[in-house]
Specification:
389 residues, six-stranded parallel sheet, 2 domains, Rossmann fold
């Protein structure tokens, strides 16, 4: 039970950064739906807290250059990726948020932030984090070089984000395991609530000739990180066995010219859905994957999938039931899995339907919202008991 602090409805301070792959829009919707007794106040770190603060941004740029100049020179990092990974910007965001919230702290029932790039906690007020990653999860990916981690002092601050939260909600089980393994967070302080899809979960009519058109679709803007080079090598072997096979690349824009490969590049949501509907198999041989929303969307289209056996993928895909899990950077294993599905339309249908059942039960924003409400209520109840003791 959330107490009222005034004649007006108490508020949730929802702290976010941009769209977060549209997850912030859906999370806000669910917080409003699941907590009708509260008012949602959205605070965007980029659009409000840092807006117009050119001096802060300039000093942060200097901090980035002094801290990460080697990584920037060798192109292991970019200024964009480093922006939120300096102690300077971490502390400035914390100060600016507290300055905004402190005078009105009695208006808030709790604070809730998405992503773990800043600490939005206001001391004394219940605080919750919902994130798709921890930085040290990268160490679980095969071949990830430790030198590509961000600075040790920033990682120490990231530890504090999780320790200071009343509870941490995550989108996949491997991130929850990272919290206990890499950050020594007590297991009971983190819960996997998954994430929902941003498309209509209703099955759509497929235009793939009942899975006989041998079309593979890949969706991902970051071509290298998503395993695009491995997919191209595997597709050569696929064509040797199935010369009518086709590959459609959506999001990425590699310099590839082949009669059986269509490069779509960035596309609208409707166009993405259309390409999924015209495919027989979805493939994402990713090398790093905090969540993998494209896999969820493929399952909502009743498509079987072939993905890497890393990160969140084992959460999403039941190997041999809804798709195939293969090692990253292994074009031969990837080709074998693709040929297996493209050669068997009945298996494609069976796997696709199994995947649809999985995501319909677990990966909808409605189910995420219910899990968030349950977890937050339990934490607030424990906090009330502790305060009364």
């Amino acid at each position: 039970m959330i107490p009222s602090t005034s004649s007006c409805r108490p508020k949730i301070a929802f702290l976010k950064r941009g769209l977060f792959s549209y997850s912030n829009l859906r999370t806000a919707e669910q917080l409003r739906l699941q907590f009708p007794e509260l008012e949602l106040e959205e605070i965007d770190i980029e659009a409000e807290i840092l807006r117009g603060r050119y001096g802060v941004k300039a000093r942060n740029l200097a901090s980035i250059l002094s801290r990460y100049w080697r990584e920037l020179l060798t192109k292991r990092q970019t200024i964009h990726l480093c922006f939120y990974r300096t102690p300077y910007i971490f502390h400035r965001i914390q100060e600016l948020l507290r300055a905004r919230l402190e005078s009105r702290r009695r208006e808030y029932a709790f604070t809730f932030q998405t992503q773990s790039l800043y600490d939005g906690r206001l001391p004394g007020l219940p605080h919750f984090v919902y994130t798709d990653h921890t930085h040290l999860t990268n160490l679980t990916y095969p071949g990830f070089p430790r030198e590509e981690l961000f600075s040790r002092d920033w990682i120490d601050l990231e530890h504090g984000i999780y320790r200071n939260a009343d509870h941490v909600f995550v989108m996949s089980e491997h991130v929850r395991q990272s919290l206990t393994r890499h950050y020594a967070l007590p297991p009971e302080q983190a819960t996997c609530v998954y994430a929902g899809s941003n498309i209509d979960p209703s099955p759509v009519p497929l235009e793939n000739g009942a899975y006989t058109n041998q079309t593979i679709v890949f969706i991902g803007v970051d071509w290298e990180r998503k395993g695009g080079a491995t997919l191209l090598k595997a597709f050569e072997e696929v064509l040797a066995s199935l010369p009518a096979a086709k590959l459609v690349v959506v999001g990425g824009n590699p310099m590839v010219r082949h009669p059986q490969i269509e490069i779509v590049g960035r596309a609208s949501r409707d166009a993405v859905n259309a390409h999924l509907a015209r495919a027989s198999v979805f493939c994402l041989p990713t090398r790093i994957e905090p969540f993998g929303i494209a896999v969820v969307e493929a399952f909502f289209h009743n498509l079987p999938v072939v993905v890497s056996n890393i990160g969140a993928m084992p959460d999403l895909v039941r190997d041999g039931q809804s798709g195939h899990l293969v090692p990253p950077d292994d074009p031969k294993a990837l080709a074998k899995a693709l040929i297996d599905l493209l050669s068997d339309p009945a298996k494609c249908r069976r796997f696709g339907e199994a995947g649809h059942r999985t995501v319909s039960d677990r990966y909808t924003w409605e189910s995420v919202g219910r899990r968030l409400r349950e977890g937050i209520d339990a934490c607030l109840a424990d906090r009330s008991v502790a305060a009364a003791a």
